[in-house]
Amino acid sequence: MDRFHEKEISGCGILGIMDQKGKRFSGGDIVAGIASMRERANGLGGGFAAYGIYPEHKRDWCFHMMFENKSAMVQTEEYLRENYKIVKDGIIPTREDRSIKYRPLLWRYFLQHKEEKTKLHYDLTEKDFVIKTVMEINTKIPGAFVASSGRNMGVFKGVGYPEDIGRFYKLEEYEAYIWTAHGRFPTNTVGWWGGAHPFGLLDWSVVHNGEISSYGINKRFLLNYGYVCAFFTDTEVMTYLFDLLVRKHGLSFEVVADILAAPFWDDIERQPQGRGELLRTLRIAYGSALVNGPFSVIVANSSTMVGLNDRIKLRPLVAATSENRLYIASEESAIREVCPRPNRVWMPKAGEPVIGRLIEV
Amino acid sequence: MKKIIIREEYCMGCRLCEVHCLVQHSKTKNIIKAYKGEYPKPIPRIIVEEKGYVSFALQCRHCEDGPCLEACITGAMYRDKKTGAILLNEDKCIGCWMCIMVCPFGVISRNGEGKKIASKCDLCMGEKVPICVKNCPNEAIVYEEKK
Amino acid sequence: MAKRPLPTEFIIERDEEKCIACQACVRMCSNDVHSYDPETDTVSSDSAKCVGCHFCETLCPTGALVIRRNPSEFKLNANWNAEVIKNITRQAETGGMLLTGMGCDKPYPIYWDYILLNASQVTNPSIDPLREPMELRTYIGRKPDKIEIQITNSKSQISNYKLQTSIPPQLKLETPILFSAMSYGSISLNACKSLAKAAREVGTFYNTGEGGLHRELYKYSANTIVQVASGRFGVHREYLEAAAAIEIKIGQGAKPGIGGHLPGEKVSEEISQTRMIPVGTDALSPAPHHDIYSIEDLRQLIFALKEATRYKKPVGVKISAVHNVAPIASGIVRAGADFVAIDGLRGGTGAAPTVVRDNVGIPTELAIAVVDQRLREEGIRNQASLIAAGGIRSSSDVIKAIALGADAVYIGTASLVAMGCSLCQRCYTGKCNWGIATQDPYLTKRLNPDIGTRRLVNLLRAWSLEIKEMLGGMGINAIESLRGNREQLRGVGLSDTDLKLLGIKPAGEAW
User: Could you identify which of A6, A172, A219, A242 might form a hypothetical disulfide with C510, taking C-beta atoms 3.0 to 4.6 angstroms apart as the criterion?
Assistant: First the structure.
C-alpha cells in the first residue's frame, strides 16, 4: 500500500440515512441502497460510517485500525498503551468474500484518556490530543492506518464494491442511527484500503463525490490552522474544513455551507443589508476555504448528518424524508430502493445544505 | 449642426491634419501622387496655428452669419441647405479673394496654382467624418453637435 | 587623445520614394533627429541622436520610416560587447553614474515563461466564462482569523444570525490588477489622469508614487493609493485624507536599496508645487526613511499613519525583492501592515543607475513564492494581502502570480506600453516623445487622457477576459480558489531547486 501516491480523483456514489429520533436500525438498508448504485463505482473502493454502534462503550474512543503487517500492529499497540488506557480491543469481525482481496489486519481498540497524558498536554483539548495521536500513527508508524477515531461510531471500508465491503464487515449485524456509504471510481492507481471513503477523524465522517480544483489552496489554508493534509485526498480536506469551522470556530452548518459553497457576489449584493454584510464578510475572511470544483458530500458527526453541493451543483444530490428518517443520496433510485414511498423528495439547490439533526428525546 | 470642435490642449502640432486634408482634396486621393505628381498641387483647407507650445488646427467655422457669403460677388460661396455648411462652388469662383479679406478667422486660402480661386474647408462633403478629424492621432479635433 | 564617437544605437531608414517631406517627423522629434532642407525639399535624419522611441515611425503618414537597431561596429566579443565598451567610454568622459529608465533588460531567466497552467478534463468539468459567472473580485486588506456569529433566536436559520466580528478596512477590486506607483514627475499629469480615470472606470486603484497628489487628481480619491516614500514628497494631511489606502514605500524593484530619483530637468513649476521642492532641483529621495532604521520604527510609522487616518484605511508597505525578502515580509506583516507589495528585479523606474537596476534584487516570481510560503508557515498569511509587482507582462503572468500566492498584481510598464511607450529607456531625459515621461508642455500635450484612459481600460478588460478563460479552463469560478493554489502550476525546464523554491511540481507529475 503506497500511500504517498498521486491525489485521488474520483467519481462515485454516496448515500446517507439518519433516524432523527436516534432510533437505531440495521446496516442492511444502507448496503441495499448503495448496491443499487453499483455503476457509480468500479470496485476499487467502498465504505461505510455508522453512528451508535457501540452503546456499551459510549464514552470510549474507538479506533478502527488497518495494519499491513504484524509489526505495524505491535508498534501501534505500544503507542496506544503509552498514550491511552486500552479498555478493550479485538479483531473487527468479518466474513469471507471472494471479491475482497488482500485484506489488511483489521482491529479495533476502545480507549480512554490517561490522566498523566492529559496533564502533560494541557494546551490541547481532549479532542485535539486524539487528533494528534491519530496523525502520529498515520504518518510515523509505517503500515498502520486509523480508519476512524470517534466515540460510539466506526468507519468500515476497503477495496471492493461497497455492497461487498458491507457484506464483508457483516454490517447487517450492527445497529446505528446514522449510516453513510460510499462507492469509489478512482482514476489513478490501485486503490489502497486507507484511501477508500469515508474519511474519519474524531466523530466526523465524510463521503465525497467530486474533485476539488481549489485543493492546492484549501490545503494551505488548513496548514495555517495546524492541519497537515497527509493523504492527498479531497475528502481529507473536507473533513478538516468541517472540523475547523464547526468545532474550532463554532460556526453552524448553515454558515459553513455559505463558506464552502459561497454564493456569487452578484447574489450577495441582492441580499438584504444584514445578511448581505454577513455573507460578504464570510467570503472575505474565508475566501481560501471556498471549495471550488464539483462536489457533493455527506458529512456526519454524532448528532448531525449534512449533505452539501458545490456552488454550481456539478454533481448530483437528492434528499428525501419519511417520518423520522432523512435520506441523502447521489440518486433518487438509491433512496427508493430502501424507502419506496418517502413523504417528500427534493433536489437541494447549489450550495443549499440538507441538515439532519438528532431531535433530543 | 455637427461642427469640428477644436481641443487645443491636445494638438501636437504634427500637421498631419493638413497632410490628410490635402490628400482628400487632391485629384488622385493617393498621398504619394498628391504630393509628388499632381499639378496644380492641392492645398490643405485646414491650417495649424502655433505659438510657443500652444497649437491648434483651424478651419472654416461655417459661421451662422458668415461674412464671406455677403462678400462673394459671384454667389460662388453658398450655404448648403441640408448640412448648414458654407461651401464654395469652384466653378463659379473668379478668385477676387474678397472672402479672404472679410473672413474674421483667416481660414480661407489663396489658391494660385492653376486657376486662381479661393479654397476653404468643406467638411469633406460625402464623408461620414471629416478626414482631418479621422486622422488626428491625438483626437485634438472632434466632430460633434455644437451645444 | 581623439574622442571616440559613441556608436549609434539605431539607424533610420527613410524610403525616399515614400517620403513626401510633410515634416511631421521633423516637428515631432524631441531629440532633433530629423531636419528639413528647403533648398532640396527633402528631409534627412541624424541617426546618432535617435533613441528608438518610434514616435516618428508611428506618425509618418506614408510609412516611409523604419527604425532599425544598428549592428555594433566593434569586433564581435561575447564578453566585451558594445554596451560595455560604450558605458566605460561614457564614464571615462563624464565621471558620473550612468542613468537609465524602465526595468532590467538583461537576459536573466524569466520564471513566468517556465511555468505552465492546468486545465480540467473529464473528472472535473471546465467552466465556460461566457455562459457562467466567473468571479474576479478581490479584497485587499487584513483578514480576521475567524468570524464570530451570534444567533439571535433558537431557530437555526441564517436570517437570525448577527455578525459580531467587523473586518478591518478593505480595498475592493473588480479585477486583481492595480496600476503601479508612478510618480507625478516621472510621468506627466496627462498620464496620471489616464491612470486615475481608468482605475475609476474599471473599479480598481492607481498609485500616486512618491510625487504627491496634484490638485486635479483629488477627484479620483476613491481610487487612489497614496505613497509615503522616503522623501515624503507632498505628504500632508489632505493627501492622506484623500486616499483610499496608504502605501509606505521602503523600496522598489528597479533600484533596491536606493531612493527615488527625479532629474532636475523634469522638475517644472507644477511639480515643484506638488512635491514642495524648488524648481529645477534634482529630487533625490534618501535611501532609507530616516525615521525607519529597524522594524520597530516601521511599526511606529504604520500606526502613526493609521492613527492619522482614524484606522479607516488600509496601510501597507512596498518593498523590493531582495535575498531576505521572506523574513522581511514576515516582519512587516507582524508590524501591522495590511498589505505588502513586493517589487521584483524587473520593476520599472523613471530614472535609476543602470548598474543598480540590472544587478540588484531577485525575480518577482521567486519572491512571491517564498514570501507566501513563509507567511503561511508562520500562520499569519491572512493578516496582510500580497501584491506582486515587477515585470507583469500579460494575463498569464497575472494568473501565475496569483497561483503562486499573490492576492493581486501591480502593473507599471505594461500600463505605459498601453499608452504608447516603446521602452526606449530614456525617461530620465524628460524628452519622452509620447508625452508620458516628461513635463515639457510641448510633449505632454501628446498624451490625450481620453485616449490614454480608453487604452488602459481596454488593457484591463482584455486581461480580465483572458484570466476568466484560463480560470474556467481550470474548473474554477472564483479567483480566491486560485490564490496560492500551486497545484494548478507545473514547471518546465526548471531545476529542482527552482521547483522547490516556487513550490510547484514539474510538468508530467499528476496531483
Answer: A6
The pLDDT value recorded for residue C72 is 62
The Cα A240–Cα A131 span in angstroms is: 11
Judged by CB atoms closer than 8 Å, whether chains meet at C161 and A255 is answered as yes
The half-sphere exposure of B128 on its side-chain side, counting CA atoms within 13 A, is 1
Domain A10-357 has CATH 3.30.565.10: no
Q: Does the beta-carbon distance from B14 to C17 stay under 8 Å? A: no
What's the one-letter identity of residue C204? T
Report pLDDT digits (tens) over B42-83: 899 999 999 998 999 999 999 988 899 999 999 999 999 888
How much is the ipTM here? Answer: 0.90
Return the partners of chain C (3 or more C-beta pairs < 8 Å).
Answer: A, B
Give CA–CA dist B137/B132, Å, rounded.
10
Q: What is the 3-state secondary structure (H, E, C) of C378-394?
A: CCCHHHCEEEEECCCCC
Cβ-Cβ contacts under 8 Å, A277 against chain C: 163
Residue B90, domain CATH: 3.30.70.20
Q: Min CA distance, C103 vs chain B (Å)?
A: 27
Q: Model pTM?
A: 0.91
Domain that holds residue B96: 63-120
> CATH 3.30.70.20 residue ranges in chain C?
10-96
CA dist C493 → C109, C114, C287, C396 (Å): 11, 6, 38, 18
Which candidate from C20, C28, C445 shows the least CB-CB separation from B31?
C20
Place of cell 549592428: C71
Domain C10-96: which topology?
Alpha-Beta Plaits (3.30.70)
Cβ contacts (< 8 Å) between B13 and chain C: which residues? 27-28, 442
Q: Are A326 and A298 in contact (CB under 8 A)?
A: no
Q: What percent of chain B has pLDDT over 70?
A: 99
E strand or H helix at A273: helix A273-285
Per residue in C326-366, pLDDT (tens digit) is 999 999 999 999 999 999 999 999 999 999 999 999 999 99
Chain region(s) in chain C for CATH 3.20.20.70: 171-483
Question: Is residue B87 located within the same domain as residue B54?
Answer: no
Output DSSP code: residue C70.
Answer: P
pLDDT of residue A1: 37
> Taking CB atoms and an 8 Å limit, are B12 and C445 in contact across chains?
yes
Q: Does C26 lie at the interface with B, CB-CB under 8 angstroms? A: no
Please calculate the CA angle A125-A129-A132 and round it to the nearest 5 degrees. 135
Give me the amino acid identity at A147. Answer: A
- Tell me the pLDDT tens digit for each residue of C9-40: 899 999 999 999 999 999 999 999 999 999 99
pLDDT score recorded for residue A34: 92
Rg value, chain B, Cα: 15
Please report, for chain A, the start and end positions of each structural domain, with discontinuous segments joined by +.
10-357
**Residues C380-403, mean pLDDT to the nearest whole number:** 96
Indicate the number of domains in chain B: 2
Q: pLDDT of C260-303, one tens digit each?
A: 889 888 999 989 888 888 999 988 888 889 999 899 999 999 99
Best A7, A220, A249 member to test C by mutation, with max C CBs in 10 Å, is A220
Note whether B54 and B23 are same-domain residues.
yes
Mean of pLDDT values over C232-249:
93
Cell numbers found for residue C421:
511607450
pLDDT band at B147 (very low <50, low <70, confident <90, very high): low
Q: Do C18 and B36 touch (CB under 8 A)?
A: no
Q: Do C445 and B9 touch (CB under 8 A)?
A: yes
Residues of chain A with pLDDT under 70: 1-11, 187-191, 361
Q: What single DSSP character describes residue C478?
A: B
Assign domain C171-483 to its CATH superfamily. Answer: Aldolase class I (3.20.20.70)
Per residue in A176-185, pLDDT tens? Answer: 999 999 998 8
Q: How confident is the model at residue C159 (pLDDT cuts 50, 70, 90)?
A: low
